[in-house]
Design goal:
265 residues; MetI-like fold; mainly alpha; single chain
Length: 265
Amino acid sequence: MKKEKKSLLSKILLGLTATFFYVPILYIILFSFNSSRSLTKFEGFSLRWYEKMFADSTMMAAVAYTVIIAVLATIISTIVGTLTAIGLSKSRKLIRGMVEQVNNLPILNPEIVTGIGLLMFFSALGVKKGFLTLLLAHVMFCIPYVILSVTPKLRSLDPNLADAALDLGATPMQALWKVIVPQIRPGIISGALIAFTMSFDDFVISYFVTGNGVNNISILVYTMSKRVNPSINALSTLVILLITVALLIVNIIPIIKEKKGRKLT
């Protein structure tokens, strides 16, 4: 009886948690198709807010900047973070420990402190705030997450793997790209996904380092939140759809590859 009660209680808690997380998302999706401006009463199905969203040049520019910044920040931070993690795995224990502690600072540091620090740094260098400063800031706070994702995979590898590849005639670059990288690919993909997510929805740091005419989605939503604009629901629904499709692709591709591998064997 006690086990049944615990099982029932856990199911209830799970249901309440899922409701808390997913009902607001479903609410946004539903009211993105509302024919009126009301955010509390659904008066009929309509695509008018999607039409207004695509016709709004400011909103489309924010979407473009968000995607471009997120993609570039993900590519750069994944390459730099992966190479850094590989280099640290071959470094001395003291140096590795010091760098890992420094790497944790951007993660543990409050975002508002990081944003103000970057603002003062760019101002001191005389760098005009805009696309470049926004990209550099996103790369800066994405790299630590990539390093944290790749490092555990490197620690699980045989330390003699690279040496064995070199002994068999591989060049250092061949040993890196054909031996090491395939073994740590899951960690690299995880780091890239985290970097993309962190860059895509960042607001605090972006708010301090961006310039006039360069806004991402989070800053745009913040500026539009002071007045009722149902186009925000349409934009949010579009973002949810893109993220859902990306997650499905990332999870389905390994399954397809695994099935093909089984058929070949």
